[in-house]
Design brief:
single chain; 512 residues; mainly alpha; Rossmann fold; Serine Threonine Protein Phosphatase 5, Tetratricopeptide repeat; DNA Cyclobutane Dipyrimidine Photolyase, subunit A, domain 3; 3 domains; 5-stranded parallel sheet; 48% helix; 6% strand; globular; binds flavin-adenine dinucleotide; binds iron/sulfur cluster
Amino acid sequence: MKAVTRLILILGDQLDLQSAALKGFRRETDEIIMIESANEAQYVWSHKAKIALFLSAMRHFDKSLKDQKYPLTYIQESSLSIIEVLREQILQKKISHLVCIEPGEWRLKQSIEDLATELKIKLEILEDEHFYCSPQEFKKWVADKKEIRLEYFYRLMRKTHNILMDKDGNPEGGQWNFDQDNRKPYPKKGPGLIDAPKRFEPDEITQAVLGFVEKTYKNHPGSLESFNWAVTREQALEALQYFVEYRLRNFGMYQDAMWIDTPFGWHSIISSALNLKLLNPREVISAVLLAWKKDASLELSSIEGFIRQILGWREFVRGMYYLDMPQMALDNFYEHQRALPKWYWTGQTQMACMQDAVGQTLKYGYAHHIQRLMVTGNFALLAEILPSQVCDWYLAVYVDAIEWVELPNTAGMALFANGGRFTSKPYIASGAYIKRMSNYCGTCKYKPDIRFGESACPVTTLYWNFLIKHRTQFESSPRTRLMTANLKRISDSDQLAIQAHAQTILNNLDAL
Ligand code: FAD
Ligand code: SF4
């Protein structure tokens, strides 16, 4: 047995041959370890497609590393946790130096640090180079801020990295943000023909994984029938190119639009590839900028709208995650305690909007941002669900869900669980918003404009109930005062009826 000096741990969401962990790799004395652990699939009740995506991408990466003759121990289908396997391997191989890239989950990072202390070995945690902004830089930026807001961070990123800036140092098009142009619903007669996103037929490795997951995790939620996610870097690059060529054009305009059985809209569907590190955000932004340079008919609002998601939101939420953990996972500003309705796991509800958003989530492991924020997220906040249960659901059901990006979006943005640490107001809406942005309400048993009574839309009832209940909080801020101003148009007796009906709904969430 060779004497191993450094053990390089590559986690399932760190699948990059250019990784900082592989720089300066010494083949004679270093060794890589990758671990498939059942714990990772089970600590939340993960969607089968999410488990399959991670395993397939890991096995393809294992193959790439072996093709390049890296010395590698790949532990397949272990029933132990990552930490338990690591402990065994470190002791067996007499490792004194463990190297890894910053894990995307606080819990795992802590456990690795604890293990290194326990075994008295050197631990080197390297910066993840797949981001523009490091947690340290983010912390420094926050230090002198009264309010932490995406918009100012995003402007800084644009300036620092010279992205969408003109030669005089001003934002392209004379404004930083084209958000107002990114909120259109589809035309009344429907979205028309949308170029389907690039999908990939399962190869031999993926098929073996699908069989394994179906057998081992048969009681887990979701389906594998539609599984054709990008599982290699080559496929991820293809998916990116396909998006840029065919779908970017309408991304901006219809970013927030929803329509029954239109699961992907004009979205890029690259979040899982980005989060597994099959793609680097820099190459994503370069590809989009290049397309814009070549094709003058591409609108700046689409380009800026897309870049804002990657350079703005993605970096921002990561900064917030490392800044606020572990508190972020415990926050519960409104002290909500209700259990998540069972239909979040089945899609079997009479609310057409939830049926569609949850249904496609279970089918593909995907829903787009507005479905996550303004359909399932909005409902969970209005229905006063315990934030940790909601966060566990999001972490379980989306193929792109890794805690650094899932938790700030769910707890911080959708649930206002941190009391507005980085958002100026809770993102809440009544059925009227869903009606405006989709065709869901047309097929629904409930009526979005009715506030109480049998045919009232539960989203609408709970929205007004929430405003009545938190009126003082909403009236204390100029950003939210307008929302409660509308309450003045609702008579006292109707407000009482809304509250009574809301109570009935809240007591019977599973029956909706
Ligand atoms: P597009 O709409 O095409 O956007 C392009 C890219 O921008 C995405 O691929 C993603 O990398 C990035 N992006 C867009 N919005 C955000 C955002 N708010 N935060 C971070 N990155 C963003 N995204 C995840 O990657 N993993 C999650 O677990 C996750 N959980 C979410 C939970 C909630 C409650 C909400 C409201 C949002 C969540 N998001 C999450 C953000 C966003 O919904 C997804 O990134 C997006 O839907 C992925 O689809 P897409 O690749 O087609 O994205
Ligand atoms: Fe959803 Fe209400 Fe519209 Fe039904 S009426 S689809 S519950 S918003």
